[in-house]
Inverse folding.
């Protein structure tokens, strides 16, 4: 009986140690997303609904952030017709804040079922970066399953809204020999195609995705975009709906 109790204690201790070590590893790996989720309980200054910045930055920087958030929200509304998402925005400008919240100096979003957390660094304090991340958050909020849209469409829509890739048509023409060689967009249905931001390959992929979505959206508008999202939420396939909505819109004109 005593031996049995000792074995039970040892097994219990092993389980506890395993749980503690697992939690410790998880906190280390996911420390920055966890800090973002817990921003309500941090020393960050809450300057507007869901908008946070370091308390010791000047009022001019805080006002700049608020203006950029409003401008970015307006750009999203202009594309979708309205805005249903309400992601958190965390501006991490000092090294200390970057170490706590940010994966890079520009911007990224941590996605969770209950809320999205946008973190922008000193290079991301622009309406381009914010509207890009807001667009990702808006599309995810409206879709029942974010995997229903290919990566190139998700990134293409965000780049169309953010406005940084204004040379997308020239890049497309050069890459396709003015349309003679069509793009295999399935090649761009991977986050790896866009992850190495700043590289020549990623820059080209963003431009190609931006070109295609801009071309399609110019034809179908916000009503076509909402129709696509509604169809996907009802179980329709992306490729079918994407082509069908474009064809139907062109036939109406």
């Amino acid at each position: 009986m005593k031996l049995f109790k000792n074995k039970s204690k040892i097994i219990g201790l092993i389980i506890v140690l395993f749980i503690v070590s697992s939690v410790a590893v998880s906190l280390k790996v996911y420390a920055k997303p966890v800090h973002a989720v817990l921003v309500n309980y941090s020393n960050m200054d809450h300057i507007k609904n869901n908008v946070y910045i370091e308390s010791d930055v000047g009022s001019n920087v805080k006002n700049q952030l608020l203006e950029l958030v409003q401008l970015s929200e307006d750009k999203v509304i202009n594309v979708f017709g309205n805005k249903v998402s309400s992601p958190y925005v965390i501006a991490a400008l000092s090294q200390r804040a970057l170490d706590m919240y940010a994966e890079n100096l520009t911007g990224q979003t941590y996605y969770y079922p209950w809320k999205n957390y946008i973190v922008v660094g000193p290079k991301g304090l622009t309406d381009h970066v914010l509207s890009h991340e807001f667009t990702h958050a808006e599309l995810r909020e409206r879709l029942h399953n974010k995997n229903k849209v290919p990566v190139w469409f998700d990134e293409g829509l965000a780049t169309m809204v953010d406005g940084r890739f204004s040379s997308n048509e020239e890049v497309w023409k050069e890459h396709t020999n003015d349309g003679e060689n069509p793009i295999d967009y399935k090649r761009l249905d991977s986050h790896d195609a866009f992850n190495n931001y700043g590289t020549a390959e990623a820059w080209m992929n963003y431009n190609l995705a931006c070109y295609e979505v801009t071309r399609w959206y110019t034809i179908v508008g916000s009503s076509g975009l909402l129709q696509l999202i509604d169809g996907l939420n009802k179980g329709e396939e992306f490729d079918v709906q994407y082509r069908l909505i474009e064809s139907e819109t062109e036939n109406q004109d």
In short: The longest helix spans residues 200-233. The first strand starts at residue 45 and ends at 48. Confidence is low (pLDDT under 50) at residues 16-28.
